């Protein structure tokens, strides 16, 4: 290293900058002390990541709303073309806002409205409707002269133009039914059903009685009178406004109706009576007759049949005859795979199959149930069965 | 627990109390700290880079780094070695940045040792050639050479300032001297392209 010039360089460079320079360095360092109170680079990065995360979390629902609106618009546009009968049952999703299930042979159209609301016109057939609450729009379902306005609910609407028969039933929430045929809009809540139609050649306005009544103390079945007497259109009066006739003071009490036998009950059975018959079947004395009446209803291919079959299945379940119950539920689903009683039928079938111990069928049925009714009443059982428990 | 010597403001102040004030960026404590170590820091930066145009900025950066990292210092006895290490690291970091800058913008004139500040004409060229040869070394080797030969550090002090073991410091020095010699003696042929 002898040839290396370290000592020469050391002498040339001296001891470094002068005193003035060093004093300025000192002033600069002390001046900057206050400025160091700001966030460090790491702090800025953390703050940036936090801000981005917050922005993502805040904007996500907005983006989802936006995407959902586009999905609804796309479905509305797809349905806006002139309708043709749909040969098979079909599930139509309007984004996450609403799901419609059509019955085979149904015909429907939809029309966008400038307000963002959606109107679906049911020209024929049946629609099961599930509308999410807070979807931010009003859903209107038109069927003939009727309009059902929905905010967030589950219901089904049935329109048979050839019979001029309209029916709406609400499972959850509430709807408003409007029509030129009605003197005022009607509000239906969960568990209520409304039927209007021409029956037996006479035009009637027939709001459903709340339930067929069974007087438990009486040995005989007492069926509440159906909506008759039939009235002509000119005499149509809203039932809400109609007051029941009070018996005249001193008049003898009305005669109880004669005790019906099986065939009579079958004759009396209408769509409205089925629940009552199911209750009646719980009475040992009426069981046979009620079963016969319900069975009589099961030979059609409409809602009445599927409802009767579901009720029979539930009666069988109650009597711990799971195999028979499973068969009734299966028949109900065959009669109407996506009807208003399909969920009950599928749920009942799950219970029956689980009770029978048919694990492979129960598992398949559970998977189907969860797919169709992710929030259904039997979802917990379905989840357990689907998991193979 | 010793007390800080050679200081007026906090004479008699216990180490812990002074370090606590320094961590809190107390202006008087920072001024005292600067006064105590500025000569050594200036000298180190000066030797490592020569009379560099960024000298003042690097001294400032070194003290800023020290004030940020002072939390890790437990006793005043550890301060001198730690100050040297932070200063050397600050200069090495700057040298690495310059190397990258040169790599991506080779036409830019990266600051070179301000040899013009050397008044002696005869030594000015020597200074320039020495720093050009040092530019051809990696930053660790350069620092080891400068600390040992210009600052006159003991081998243990070199190792401490570089944050390496004594054996590694010896190895680095041997290699660095060989490479420096080759570059310095072949300076006429290689010129600045070595950098």
Instruction: Report the largest inter-chain contact.
Output: A-B, 26 and 38 residues
Helix content of chain A: 25-40%
* Major β-sheet annotation of chain A: 12 strands, mixed
Share of β-strand residues of chain B: under 5%
- CA radius of gyration of chain B: 18 Å
Count of DSSP-assigned helices of chain B: 9
- What is the terminal-to-terminal distance of chain B? 48 Å
User: What is the string of helix and strand elements of chain A?
Assistant: HHHEEEEEEEEEEEEHHHHHHHH
Query: For this entry, what is the oligomeric state of its chains?
Result: heterodimer
Dominant shape of chain A? elongated
| Mean pLDDT across every amino acid position of chain B | 81
Report the uncertain regions of chain A.
Answer: 199-272
Helix and strand topology:
The complex is a heterodimer of chains A (389) and B (195).
Chain A: H1 6-13, H2 19-31, H3 41-79, E1 90-94, E2 98-102, E3 107-112, E4 118-131, E5 139-143, E6 146-150, E7 154-160, E8 165-172, E9 174-179, E10 186-189, E11 193-199, E12 202-207, H4 262-268, H5 274-281, H6 287-297, H7 303-318, H8 322-335, H9 342-356, H10 359-372, H11 379-386
Parallel strand pairs in A: 4-5
Antiparallel strand pairs in A: 1-2, 2-4, 3-4, 4-7, 5-6, 6-9, 7-8, 8-11, 9-10, 11-12
Helix pairs in contact in A: 4-6, 5-6, 5-7, 6-7, 7-8, 7-9, 8-9, 9-10, 9-11, 10-11
Chain B: H1 15-23, H2 27-49, H3 55-69, H4 79-104, H5 121-135, H6 139-150, H7 155-162, H8 166-185, H9 187-190
